[in-house]
Protein 1
Amino acid sequence: MERRWTCTMKLTPLERSWALYDVGNSAFVLMVSTIMPIYFKNLTSAAGVADYNSTAWWSYAVAISTLLAALLGPTLGNLADKRGWKRGLYALFVVGGAITCALLGFSPTWLIFLAVFVVAKVFFSTSLVFYDSMLPDVTTAERVDMVSSTGYAWGYLGSCIPFVACLVLVLTAEQTGIGTMRAIILAFLITAVWWAVLSVPLYGRYRQTHRNTGELAGMRELGQVVREIIQHKKIRLYLLAYFFYIDGVFTIIEMATSYGKDVGIGDTDLVLALLLTQVVAFPFAILFGRLAGKFATESLLQICIAGYFFIAVFALQLDKAWEFWFLAVCVAVFQGAIQALSRSYFARIIPAEKSGAYFGFYDIFGKGASFFGAVVLGVATQIFSTSRAGVVALALLFPLGLWLLRKSMKIPVKM
């Protein structure tokens, strides 16, 4: 399927406010993938925990948080659809996430830090259920790929502002007399404030126009959505495809820093390479958003999946700093595109009035994949005492996801 680019690139005020939340929450994502694992490694090292065990503990924390968020998503998403509560629940989970993010800096031990991180990650992940499900209310079907991609693009570039400020604060802590611990506390506070403040425009402008007016309620309504997904072969196959390919994507994003440290990459190279990823990801997310106006979204997703398969295979032999930098650039090319296009494609094939419940299940497949990937990586790392073992299994998930996506592509959309 080939589409003409029929919409302008200029965002409406509501679309702009929606994209700004990506800028806000991406600061937390960047902290989770860079500074947090390094800080956690320092806490565990001081407590005498082996490097490979600390990587496993971090994997388990990621897995637990994603599992909890996945369990909450469909129920709360359905409630938001029925009661018109998307805006209120979005605000609740953003505030909860920002508060727990700020508290991370005050965690005295690695176990307490890990527990607070799990809570913060649950708040963050659940806020995305409402944020993603707002997309059908925010824009039109013709603009959904562009708007979704713009959100990720702005998020990658905008999140660099608080991150660089935090990085400078931490790296110059001793020279300025602030002290490392105080700098860490300030870094988490800056991230929390940035996240909360940039969530305000969407809260102010968003109004829920699509509501589920069906007579069923509660678990019966969720059961109906499950039956619809099972009966709708295109959605069912797409969610299965998404589960497998996004498993590898999320695990690579969340575990890159820990994996890099395990194979001997220095802290400075790790942080700067991942910062480069954010900057390079910006134009490529925009590019793929524009390409989606001319080519089928499914075709672009296939390119992204193939790219990630190459990344996973290349990571198996990674042991030099330049290789990590090269890998960071490769990830940047596809990272925003695969997430943005997956989100916008799903929004296009589901009923808009049930977007909260459907995105709740979309979140289950995404978070379930992240849980599965993190557990696989953690268990394989402990069994074989090397982080490379889990990467082999992750690499195989991309061809499986690609095969299922191609099967889904053959089925027409029906509502």
Note: The chain is about 80% helix and 0% strand.
Protein 2
Amino acid sequence: MIFFLIRLIIWLAGLAVVGYFILGYFGYQPNWRYYEESRASCQEQLRDCQKNLLKGGLDGAKETCNFQCVDPKLLIHKEEK
């Protein structure tokens, strides 16, 4: 069992490295600072949702809360040359 987990971790790490180089070859790069840049706006959305939850209950929160803070299109972007 432990051998299987170690082998799986090695395969996943290898695929991540190969994927990183393939992205670079086609002119894309991961945005490593995405979470630092979007943290403030996500925290603000969370504060608003907390206020709505306290005021309107669960029904109010379902209408106004959007917990989709991660935009996959911004995680990998085309390199600027």
Note: The chain has two domains: 1-28, 31-76.
Protein 3
Amino acid sequence: MERDLLYRFFEGKTSVEEEKRIRKWMAESEENEKIFFDERIGFDALLFTPDRLGKSAGRKSSITPWMISTAVAVALLLIVGGIYLTNNFHPTEEYNTILVPPGQRTQIVLADQSTVWLNANSTFRYPTQFSRRSRTVYLDGEGYFEVSKNQKKPFVVKTDQADIHVTGTSFNVEAYKKFNTFEASLFEGGVDLFRNNLKLTSLQPNEKATLRDNQLQVNEISDSDVYLWRHGLIAFNSVQLPDILHTLEKYFDVVIKVNKENLPQHTYTGKFRQADGVDYALKVLQKSVHFDYLRDEVTGIIYINQ
């Protein structure tokens, strides 16, 4: 099979007849299927490239409305295969809890028609019906929110590190309790951040707040690609290898131990498809960074060696 044709297929530029030809060729033998996936790894590696030392931490880009897709739901809850839903009963309210497995994501529509996207390894707890005074939900993980406007009934996202108060807006929250992280990024409207009922700050569109070691920083959003996780992509823009490996640990719920004393100090830019899994991501990385890796079948720990 011609490499040029395969690469055009990976780019989504082939005709229907060409796609049929490729799929027929793959089905003919395991060797053809192996060649296909090897070429795809090579293709993705071309997109995932090391940057030069000294390159800036990220490009300046703003979040624009076209990046935010509108979800049309015919049911209250849309669950991707493997997502777990449980009920919790309280004297006055009934709650649902969603647990998103590693490497997956899901989207739900709440009772007020607000839409929430949840990333891998996230836990989201919300009432089946909101109270008269507020709309309060609980997040451990990462979520992208498009909140229906209601000035009389604030929408509150409670996390382990801080709470987000809004009336109607679009924003992303990363708050994994396990990793002691908190970052809120605003795209539309306005949000207020609170901790222990004390207001920390307010955000304007295209701003993000990061809380680390009890220190709050507010900066302009410099890289919009990191929010492509809603579309199944894990994106990096001028990111060092240890940070890439940490992201893979977070999204795929794995432990990666590096036995390589002198990791390259380069930064890397590229994208992975979340559905391809951690092993595929590591194979793509191997094209840019020379290493071997081994997964312990008992513990599941991934060891990276020279």
Note: Confidence is low (pLDDT under 50) at residues 52-81.
Protein 4
Amino acid sequence: MFQLIDGTGSDPIAESVVLVRDGRIETVGPQSSTPVPDGAEVIDATSQTIMPGLVDTHAHYHGDLDRVRRQFRKQLYFGVTTARSIGADPPDKVDLMLKAHTGQVTAPRMYTAGLGFSYPDGFPPGSPVNRPHTEDEAQEMVEALAEQGVHFVKMWVNRMPTPGMKITPEMRTTVVEQAMTHDLVPVAHIIEEGDLVQLMDLGVRDFLHTVEDADISPDLIERLRDTGTVFSPTLTNIHAGWFWIDHPELLDDPELRAAFEPEALARWSDPAHREEAAASPTLDARKARLAGSMAFVKILNDAGVGVAVGTDSGAGNGSWNVPQGWGTHHELELYVEAGLTPMQAIVAATQTGAALLARGEPEFGTIAPGKLADLIVLNRDPLADIANTRDIDRVMQGGTWLDRTTLMTMP
């Protein structure tokens, strides 16, 4: 007997059949009443769990294009069949992302925001993103993104300690309005309630990270729910700053070692670096930030506000603290630790993420007739322990079983 988790939050279905034809799910039903066509390839998933492919709504890809392709394959290995690259893609990477979006590259089904927007001396430091000085410049930059064919327009709306500035409300208005003029979806990296409210007033409904103010108004939480606003909290990116100090034994795990970028693996494998990180004067503040962000995620979920899985993997100008693919599963674990049920965490990584990325009715993210056949076959039950999402037997993307034995080793 196996169980089917369809990604909608409905109860799992035992002893089911999933029939795939021409890349899409044709039929889902009980084994007793769903005939299997003669000549069909049959995969016996007895004692296993089938669930939708994972969706990571917040990722970054650094390095040359060959390195980016390797990062794509790492995500596929871990069952991430759709992802969004959010704000760090110059035109050559946009072109690669668009090819991945249409299946021309071995990669998750990619969405991209091209290069995001920030203050001229603002966050993220040193990154070659769009930093307009005037509203006319901002309009031209959004127009250039539209011509490239991106799907989203991102803004970083948080300040650097020095000089303490962030993208102005007037500039945000220009970027959002221009994005909407070109039928592009605006997305904002925020941490303060006032910025959240101003951007919501402009029509933004897609937010990255969490509000870090001490308290958030219950009226605002209600507004978030009623407007269909969704957050991608990226808890794993916060946790990765010290997680490897607490769990150095994981650095010997072959799958994790393969998922890590070599620089990060070497850094965190060095006991001296771990000791230095453990002695950091900012460590307690970062732990408090994670605790606050986890509490915020619980508040959102309890109120019915959308939470989508996003890892911020690849962020940090080459710090690579969050391994591609592996980190998506860690994000699920942190949601459960924050108080979500395993089923709620799975929905965040499938249906909610798909609805956030797709325009109109998503073609992926759930297991239902007509949907693209993105499937993961697990050896153990993720509802019993969310960490079991890592115990993957097979991954299907668009109706094709992926060769996981070569995804991590291809040059």
Note: Residues 24 and 372 are 4 Å apart (CA to CA).
